[in-house]
Design brief:
Blueprint: H1 8-24, H2 28-39, H3 44-50, H4 60-90, H5 113-127, E1 131-132, E2 138-140, H6 141-144, E3 169-171, H7 177-185, E4 190-199, E5 211-221, H8 226-241, E6 247-254, E7 257-266, E8 283-292, H9 294-300, E9 308-315, H10 316-324, H11 337-340
Bound molecules: 3,4-dihydroxyphenylalanine (DAH).
3,4-dihydroxyphenylalanine is lined by residues 174, 176, 216, 254, 257, 288-290, 311-313.
Length: 353
């Protein structure tokens, strides 16, 4: 509005238009626009007030009063409309459904029980200062057998047990090959664990699968002894299964350790009395272990006269079965969500940990 245009009639027309527009505005955005248009800092009425100075002095008070009057009126209408519109927003149609009905729950899944058990085992060994090492599933015969001191004619090299890709390449039957691979690339002292998948040409039954999981441990330094092995293995078993569980070492044979042992723990089903879990022996075999054979050190490029070490290996599936009372190893890979969901935190249709 220019200075010359300010007169009573123009103002009254402006008022009418504004009142009509405010009445028609139906949402907060529109109301706000009108406030800016008429009442804002650069709105029509504010500009009118400012231009009063250009009128003859005698007309100024009356015109000023009129503008203020219109301003007051429009402000009142604006506030009332705003309140009306806001009130409508705040009070929608009553909800027709049942307020108490629980919302739909979407399953987010959870970790596979073997992933969890593996993490728990790793966690315990990390606390003891072990670090993680990994090796390939498709392995050379050299690392899986030869460098682990398996004689050429050892029965586990038989194609009955091993999936061969060709004469030199196979699917690893154990995680032990990671020992030699790691020692080749790293100098002692070292302390590693190595979890992973292993493969054997087994006929599947409740305790055998062609694909399962192991975790390997290796500790090499000067003067590592059988007592150190016993200490770390016992610490693991106590941390994982409980502090009072008895542990025993039984002499055994593995080509890559000397002496070798199988480690048993007291049966948690019967506490050593003898039950169906432990086949009435009171003990459960939990891992193989031993002092690293000098030949393995030689294959790895270490001097067996200056270092000693221990190694151990256990089946992760078996440990999970023992811990959770699972009756069939084949369940782990069957992808039945009713089975897997039992190990997710909360309900199986619920939320992941
Ligand atoms: N690799 C062995 C197996 O699959 C388990 C094992 C035994 C690993 C003794 C070791 C060990 O490191 O020292 O039966």
């Amino acid at each position: 509005m220019n200075n010359k245009g300010i007169d009573r009639q123009t103002l009254e027309e402006l008022e009418q238009t504004a009142v009509r527009e405010l009445g028609e505005a139906s949402d907060i955005g529109a109301i706000e626009e009108l406030r800016v248009k008429y009442l804002g800092r650069k709105g029509s009425l504010t500009l009118s007030l400012r231009s009063i100075g250009s009128l003859p002095a005698g007309e100024r008070p009356a015109m000023g009063n009129l503008i203020n009057e219109i301003k007051g009126k429009l402000s009142g209408i604006y506030s009332a409309r705003l309140e009306e519109i806001s009130a409508n927003i705040g009070d929608p149609e009553p909800f027709p459904g049942d307020h108490a009905l629980p919302g739909r729950v979407f399953s987010q899944g959870g970790l596979h029980v073997l992933t969890r058990v593996t993490r728990d085992i790793k966690e315990i060994f990390f606390r003891m200062g072990y670090s993680l090492a990994e090796g390939p599933d498709v392995e050379l015969d050299y690392y899986n057998f030869e460098a682990l001191n398996f004689p050429e004619d050892h029965p586990s090299r038989d194609s009955q047990d091993t999936f061969y890709v060709n004469r030199d390449i196979l699917l690893r039957t154990q995680t032990s090959p990671v020992q030699v691979r790691y020692m080749e690339k790293n100098d002692p002292p070292l302390r590693i664990i190595s979890p992973g998948r292993v493969y054997r040409n087994e006929t599947p039954d409740p305790s055998h699968a062609a694909e399962f999981h192991q975790i390997e441990g290796l500790y090499v330094d000067r003067n590592v002894s059988l007592a150190d092995l016993r200490n770390d293995v016992t610490f693991f078993i106590h941390s994982f299964f409980g502090p009072d569980v008895k542990v025993r070492f039984r002499p055994h044979f593995f080509p890559f350790t000397e002496p070798s042992a199988e480690v048993d723990m007291e049966c948690f089903g019967c506490r050593g009395e003898g039950c169906s879990i432990c086949q009435k022996t009171g003990w459960i075999e939990i891992m193989g272990a031993g002092m690293v054979h000098p030949n393995v050190f030689k294959y790895a490029g270490y001097d067996p006269d200056s270092v000693t070490g221990f190694a151990f290996g256990m089946g992760i599936d078996r440990i999970a079965m023992l811990k959770y009372g699972i009756d069939d190893i084949r369940r782990f890979l069957a992808n039945d969500i009713r089975f897997l969901g039992q190990f997710w935190s909360g309900s199986w249709a619920g939320v992941q940990d």
